[in-house]
């Protein structure tokens, strides 16, 4: 969130300048292609999804090629195996059975197998994560303030753990996910607040004039708190920075986003416990 | 012990070298030894014109000045001249020497911007003269205050030094009419901007924090106004600027790449006012002398006024914005006697920009108080107390999200500098400095009611002591040797909290040091040696130099542009000092006196412990900042060519630099060598000024540089609806090449009032509106799945401006 503030100020600075934009032609070429795996296992009981695709040259005009015919499973530290089945409807998506759930305190390892380099030998890609306990959200409040236009700021209050922790907070209005793409994911740490009761922590800034999903009186607001690994927190923040691009004043040089996969795949496999809380949005409360 | 022995041996070597070179003189002639200085500052005036007129008698000149002895004495012929003026110019120490037959003469000494000195001389013995020139009232234009000796380029021993006078800088077309010392320096060979519109610059492939910027001896840590669009130096108050591109005199140090020395003016002998009204800012300089005629003063100020016009712009984003800068220079100089002078110099500047919900303030304050004492004509000492402070404050408030950030860096240094002019052939300088640095990298408060603990990035203190000795000796008529040794001691001092890190930069241990405890010490000898070999044709010279420099403090900033958020941090238990060795070799040639100057310089620099930062480093508000630092090796090499025309209606220069700068640091680019962000293989500058008539003059700048190295994505992966770039190696691609043409015209109306002078300056920045890339971003077209494109941001299209300058 600190970076968001700084970015806002950076944008303000840029507003003060005379700047214009135009498209330019840039040619970057690569013959290299990598497998990309993105999998999530939570404490919810449901069919958990793993997507398997591959990279493209940056300026390719093709849509992302998803990989079919792979196989895989998730293994828990207690020896359970959750096999993945390729979806018939969604290309490149592999699901567990719909009665699978992760348990707090267990470590899970995703194994994916696919002959990516077409040498008739399957490569194995593995990644491991651990499920940490997640605190309950006690309440959701809303702040209102004006920055050029009125903003609504949903805030959560909860008891932070005493250890270093990183949180993800997906949010939905009337069951419609607002934070529906990686660039909108909300992640933060308990740095400086370990073991404390965190009051009114702002997780989002809603602008009803600009945002495509509006927040209106009596809408249901649901926020899910998830305790994630530092690796996933970094994956999200690094991805967001690279997606947004940088400006020469405040940004650091571009760099590849990290991964927790072994075997040469990009992407990430994450596990987390989640707790949900919902309330009705009342303008005057 | 070994270091001590080496130092002793080196010192003895210097003593041997200091044995005077003697030569015979004919008894039928006498010599006038003279030294020309500024009456107010006692500063030696180089290139003062000394003219000797022999009244109705034949004049024989057998010698002019030390450096010309060979030329004249070797011919063995006396030149008999009747009723003609003859003379010489003072050298860079203000000294001159004339050997003449006995007789009555009239001596005239003149210097641009000073009143002419005249004295009748009955020459019947050798005489010593100390000539003190008084400044005339500054005219609005045409003051080349730092005029150079006619053969200065050939004679001076320092390699890679560039000088620009205030008048030269003023002639250059500038962005929005704001004359700028640093922007002018960017037209010099070996100097490149790091990004469009910034005051940060790179010298010979080094990073911006490797440049020591001194304003009247005080370090300026952030020399930018308005995010770097303008520098902090008000040209009205500036006397001159010198840029040492690596061959930094031993008197100063602490940086690897360059030293930019900006000196401000002393007050004039009579009251005068100079000012200007521009589109962005206005400025006023007042100067004069108190009735006691011993105390001169100067005050100069600028303030921008964009903020005054913002409310009339109907956009909410703009009308409530705060956006201004100001700066003030104040100098007071009191002369107690001919030999003692006390000078006080102060600079204060600040920028503010923001909105109701967020604001940034930053600025510099520098000050110095200096006592100059002349023991005699040969020996001078200066005792100075110098202080500097750079601060950066920021607050932001977005509903429940509040952040208040304060950071600063302060230095206080006591200097004792001495200059000993043993003879016109041999000079020495020596001295000591002792100083303390206070680093406050960031105190962040999250406001009342926040459950977040304030973040206090550990404050640090460091002591820095130096001793130096430097000398310059003309060994014969052709060869001059320059040498120096600087010994620096840098000590980290408690109270401090120091982390230990693993290979990944994660904190594994913490050590607390008590108040006042020295917990880490670095000692570095910094030797340097150089020579100039003047070729027998008197118009050419070859120069060479070797320098070893060390840098103990650096900037935690890996952006390519200048930023107000400069966090400096010191060497310590986790960060080693950076070192650089530089070799320079140059050939210099003058044509027709100083009318044309040609030069070619080769340089090679090798960096050790040069720093960069881990991928995705978090440098802001990070307690474990030094865990993000990686260090390795680097090198830079190149060729600088320059052709300069100094006289006539058309003046200016063309410079071209061919260079390469690389880094190799474990942990970056998979440990493979990569281009430094400031690598510019080709850099061409053309600067021209044409004095068409007394009323009109025209100027032109053209710059062409290879685009900056950048890292572009070569691939992409899709996760949760977003394309995430995949990059190749660090800095494998380049931004489009940068080029720009600027023009200006200056109109000086006929003076109707003797006191009031004025001029209009019309300038056009980026005449052909080249869209120079400031930033390239990569965009995912949400409406067309599978489509990505590159988008370039550029800052300045064609920008005309007009400025009115006045003087009375």
Concise summary:
Chain A has 285 residues and is mostly beta strands. Helix content of chain A is 10%, strand content 40%. Chain A is built from two helices and 18 strands.
Structure commentary:
The complex is a heterodimer of chains A (285) and B (808). Chain A has 285 residues and is mainly beta. Chain A contains two helices and 18 strands. The model of chain A is unreliable at 1-7 (pLDDT under 50). Chain B is built from seven helices and 52 strands. The radius of gyration of chain B is 28 Å and the shape is globular. Classes of the chains: A mainly beta (285), B mainly beta (808). At the A-B interface, α1, β1, β3, β4 and β10 of A face α7, β25, β45, β46 and β50 of B.
Which structural traits does this protein have?
A: 285 residues; mainly beta; three-stranded antiparallel beta sheet; 10% helix; 40% strand; B: 808 residues; 22-stranded antiparallel beta barrel
Please report the total strand number of chain B as a whole number.
52
Gyration radius from CA atoms of chain B, angstroms: 28 Å
Measured by residues with Cβ under 8 Å of the partner chain's Cβ, the largest interface is:
A-B, 89 and 89 residues
**Multimeric organization:** heterodimer
Helical fraction of chain A: 10-25%
Q: Give the overall shape of chain A.
A: globular
Percentage beta strand of chain A:
35-45%
Task: Chart the SSEs and their pairings.
The complex is a heterodimer of chains A (285) and B (808).
Chain A: H1 2-15, E1 20-24, E2 35-42, E3 49-54, E4 56-57, E5 71-76, E6 81-86, E7 93-95, E8 107-114, E9 123-130, E10 137-147, E11 149-159, E12 166-168, E13 171-173, E14 176-177, E15 187-189, E16 197-202, E17 220-228, H2 230-244, E18 266-280
Parallel strand pairs in A: 2-18
Antiparallel strand pairs in A: 2-3, 3-7, 5-6, 5-8, 6-7, 8-9, 10-11, 11-16, 12-15, 12-17, 13-14, 13-17, 17-18
Chain B: H1 2-17, E1 30-38, E2 49-54, E3 58-63, H2 69-73, E4 79-82, E5 85-89, E6 95-100, E7 103-110, E8 117-123, E9 127-133, H3 152-155, E10 161-165, H4 166-171, H5 181-185, E11 191-193, E12 201-203, E13 211-215, E14 218-219, E15 224-225, E16 230-231, E17 238-244, E18 258-264, E19 272-277, E20 281-289, E21 295-304, H6 306-309, H7 316-319, E22 322-335, E23 340-354, E24 358-374, E25 379-398, E26 401-421, E27 426-445, E28 455-456, E29 460-474, E30 479-493, E31 496-501, E32 507-513, E33 518-534, E34 540-551, E35 553-555, E36 568-570, E37 578-591, E38 596-613, E39 629-645, E40 650-664, E41 674-675, E42 682-691, E43 696-705, E44 709-710, E45 713-719, E46 722-727, E47 733-734, E48 738-747, E49 757-765, E50 773-780, E51 788-794, E52 799-807
Parallel strand pairs in B: 1-9, 13-18
Antiparallel strand pairs in B: 1-6, 2-5, 2-7, 3-4, 3-6, 7-8, 10-17, 11-12, 13-14, 15-16, 17-18, 19-20, 19-52, 20-21, 21-22, 22-23, 23-24, 24-25, 25-26, 26-27, 27-28, 27-29, 29-30, 30-33, 31-32, 33-34, 34-37, 35-36, 37-38, 38-39, 39-40, 40-41, 40-42, 42-43, 43-48, 44-47, 45-46, 48-49, 49-52, 50-51
